[in-house]
Amino acid sequence: MCVFNVKIDDALMEEVRPSIAQGMEESAWVQLQVEILFSQLAANISSKRNSKLKLSERLRGIGHAPKDFDYKKELAARFDK
To answer: From CA 12, how far away is CA 75, in angstroms rounded?
Structure first.
């Protein structure tokens, strides 16, 4: 596993802090956000490589949450176990 040291501007962190699920550590939340971002980037790169595949095959594994999906509840449920 790769390990990185990341610096985030305090003002920016204050803006996003309300989005963090209660009871979740900020470092775990940042880790999750980076993993989501990297997954999306990898999917985009992969889809460009596999552009000859059918649309359904390219979209397989790339999920988008519904508009009303509650990320806070989902994260709370994951970490309350």
So the answer is: 21
Residue 6: name the closest of 43, 35, 44, 40 by CA. Answer: 35
Q: Which of 6, 15, 9, 69 is nearest to 34 (CA)?
A: 6
Structure tokens that stand for 31 in this block: 């880790």
Is the pLDDT confidence value at 14 over 80?
Answer: yes
CA distances from 45 to 15, 22, 27, 30, 63 (A): 30, 34, 27, 22, 15
- Give the count of alpha carbons within 13 A of 15, CB side only: 5
Q: Which of 23, 26, 28, 32 is nearest to 12 (CA)?
A: 26
- Tell me which of 80 and 45 has the higher pLDDT: 45
The pTM of the whole model exceeds 0.70: no
